[in-house]
Specification:
This protein has 7 helices and 4 strands; from the N terminus they run βααβααβααβα. By secondary structure, the protein is of the alpha+beta class. The protein is globular, with a radius of gyration of 14 Å. Bound molecules: uridine-5'-diphosphate.
Length: 143
């Protein structure tokens, strides 16, 4: 299996629900290691840029407003098939469709306020990691 890195965001709703530790613990207990981490409050410009791929979607403005509504916890997770593994742990975008036991089934409020973000491909993972972290902030695989 390929060792990969992926970008995770614990969104403002989950930070507000005080479940940062619960979510990180799911990553760790499922073979993902935290290689970089910080808590930040995004500016409007940063949230717009991060979600630029959705700029033409009807939910874009609400998504940006939601993402700037409070602090988020951003991390780089590493492990075998980390991108797919993280998305499996997250569950479906709409928590009503998320499998039982997934992060979104347990902690998301709605399709908008859905607790977590995870990169969806190696290309977006690389872009999203670089969006938040420089190379000195992401620790080596064996560190
Ligand atoms: N989103 C939303 N309404 C929708 C679809 C998506 O508010 O109808 C938000 C939601 O927060 C989602 C994000 O836009 O996590 C990005 O959507 P995407 O389809 O990429 O889902 P994800 O990869 O986060 O599961």
């Amino acid at each position: 299996m390929a060792t990969e890195q992926t970008l995770s965001i614990i969104k403002p709703d989950a930070v507000g629900k005080n479940v940062i530790g619960e979510i990180l613990s799911r990553f760790e207990s499922n073979g993902l290691r935290v290689k970089a981490m910080k808590m930040v409050r995004l500016t409007t410009e940063q949230a717009k840029a991060f979600y630029a791929v959705h700029a033409d979607k009807p939910f874009y403005n609400d998504l940006v407003e939601f993402m700037i509504s409070g602090p988020v916890v951003v991390s780089v997770l590493e492990g075998d098939n980390a991108i797919a593994k993280n998305r499996e742990l997250m569950g479906a975008t709409n928590p009503k469709e998320a499998d039982a036991g997934t992060i979104r089934a347990d902690y998301a409020t709605s399709i908008d306020a859905n607790a977590v973000h995870g990169s969806d491909s190696p290309e977006t993972a690389a872009e999203e990691v670089a969006f938040f972290f420089n190379h000195l902030e992401v620790f080596d695989r064996d560190a």
